[in-house]
Design a protein that fits this description.
- This protein starts with a strand and ends with a helix.
- The chain is globular, with a radius of gyration of 17 Å.
- The strands form 2 sheets. A 6-stranded mixed beta sheet has the order 6-7-8-3-9-10, with helices on both faces. It has a 4-stranded antiparallel beta sheet with strand order 2-1-4-5, covered by helices on one side.
- It is built from 9 helices and 10 strands.
- Helix 3 packs parallel to helix 6.
- With about 230 residues, it is an alpha/beta fold.
- It folds into 2 domains: about 140 residues, Rossmann fold (3-Layer(aba) Sandwich), CATH 3.40.50; about 60 residues, no CATH class.
- The relative contact order is 0.19.
Length: about 230
């Protein structure tokens, strides 16, 4: 579904990504892991078209993304849940959700019922302003909003950050349910090791802007964790 091949990115003359290559197969969940500041979010920005590549190529279902603006990439099937969630705090939950359908020119076709079934707490809070929701509720709203764009690839940046454990478990169960439906692929940037082990199919680990380890999630052994993830 997604392929990065030898992607390099620089900021103000400093090389941030160094020949990054990774694959997200169809109907799979791939975890991109690593310590803070190693290039994970920059990798996502490269996929989304928010930074320019120095070298390399990115394709979505075989379509090159290099010449497409971020909005065109979204319409092609990229759904993004950023770190920090970035919901609209002064809009209601319903307005936050409806906006995704309006922006993408989509008809509901049961999509709204589907996301409210995935995140039933939102159904109880449709008239509340997004800014008064808890962090966990805002995260569920952000994921639901991205799903309403009917993406082929859902990209999540640190969805467990600042979230209480019971909601982390709920989000994990929901991601597994979404994956098992077979409608889309998921690229998850995450530092919470147990979460990745519970939901992931495969992993990539970054360090200093490069991929330093990868494989099936079952191969994420203690030695790899100690070498590349332990702080």
């Amino acid at each position: 579904m997604l392929a990065l091949s030898n992607v390099s990115v620089s900021y103000e003359g400093s090389r941030i990504l160094r020949g990054v290559s990774l694959r997200v197969p169809e109907r799979s969940l791939v975890c991109l892991m690593g310590r803070n500041g190693v290039g994970k979010t920059t990798t996502l920005k490269a996929i989304l078209g928010l930074v320019r590549l120095d070298a390399g190529a990115i394709t979505l279902a075989g379509t090159p993304l290099a010449d497409l603006d971020p909005d065109a990439r979204a319409r092609l099937g990229l759904g993004y849940v950023p770190q920090g969630r970035d919901i609209f705090p002064h809009l209601t939950v319903w307005e936050n959700l409806k906006l995704s359908l309006v922006v993408h020119g989509a008809k509901a076709n049961g999509q709204m019922d589907r996301v409210l079934d995935l995140f039933p707490v939102l159904k109880e809070m449709l008239t509340r302003k997004g800014g008064v929701l808890s962090g966990g509720q805002q995260q569920q709203l952000a994921i639901a909003r991205a799903l309403l764009t009917n993406p082929r690839l859902l990209i999540l940046d640190e969805p467990t950050e600042g979230i209480q454990p019971n909601i982390i478990d709920l989000i994990g169960e929901t991601l597994l349910r979404i994956k098992n439906e077979g409608r889309l692929s998921i690229l998850l940037v995450e530092q919470y090791l147990d979460f990745c082990l519970n939901v992931g199919d495969s992993f990539y680990i970054m360090d200093r802007g490069a991929i330093v380890a990868d494989g099936p999630i079952t191969g994420l052994n203690p030695e790899i964790v100690r070498r590349h993830l332990t702080v």
